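Can't paste images in this forum, so I'm doing it all in text. The chain is below; anyone willing to post the predicted structure tokens underneath?
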Amino acid sequence: MAKQHVTTSINGNATEFLCDTHQTLLEVLRDELYMTGTKEGCGTGDCGACTVNVNGRMMCSCLMLGAEAQGKSITTIEGIANGEKLHLLQKKFIEHAALQCGICTPGMIVAAKTLLDNNKNPTEEQVRYWLAGNLCRCTGYNQIIEAVMDAAKELRGA
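Text version of the structure:
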């Protein structure tokens, strides 16, 4: 089977990789690029654990082929922090105990950051709507919503 050569940007870094034409972006991230922060929950786009940001939009990386990353700008959970310094949103997830088993956490944080990049003052309803595609089996969501709302408040300087 022929490999596809892909040139893209991942977490602000120019990246090239070879992938099979049937490999998902999730498989490429984890198996070829060893970026294991993005998790596989369902493999069918139903849980949001594999959420990444592609050109400013949330995408389930299990539904996108790796070859489709050609020329795109992708942000994964590894690109949210600034080196060892956690992003405010990550700190708020810790402060609010908005994580337990950790499978949904990377996708939740990427989705929440995408929201806050687009809306610095979301209502609770908007946060819930924005995160509706990300399922959590452990927290009951309240802590997650509180963490995002608190991060938004602090980012606005309120």
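The longest strand covers residues 3-10. The chain has two domains: 3-79, 88-156.
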